[in-house]
Write a structure and sequence with these properties.
3-stranded mixed β-sheet; alpha+beta
Length: 115
């Protein structure tokens, strides 16, 4: 039963963070930040959000900006989920580079010079 509750909270946080990032990156133009996964600790004190950033060349700059503004992001999240959650977990953001890894493996398996 506890696992189902944590999964629901993870999905709620993922959905709301995605909306926050969508609104903020719309101002930047050409940058997409998507929340690929959110993992919440069993005591609901920590939420780890894994972000995919496109284009990946700007990933380091955007991640630094997100980590610098993590308190304001947490506040915006609290405003959106204040009726669903009593306590808002601390947010930790991590770069999800699985798409880059898949692309790298694909390029190794199918080199362009063999065509």
């Amino acid at each position: 039963m506890e696992g189902t509750r944590i999964q629901k909270i993870s999905r709620l946080i993922q959905k709301e963070l995605s909306e926050i990032f969508r609104l903020e990156t719309a101002k930047m133009g050409g940058v997409i930040v998507s929340v690929s996964e959110v993992r919440v600790s069993p005591d609901l004190s920590i939420a780890r959000a894994y972000l995919s950033i496109f284009p990946s060349e700007k990933a380091a700059e955007i991640m630094a900006n997100i980590k610098r503004n993590d308190k304001s992001i947490r506040y915006a999240l609290a405003q959106k989920v204040r009726y669903q959650l009593r306590k808002i977990p601390e947010l930790y953001f991590h770069l999800d580079d699985s798409l880059d890894y898949i692309e790298h493996i694909d390029s190794l398996l199918h080199p362009k010079d063999n065509k």
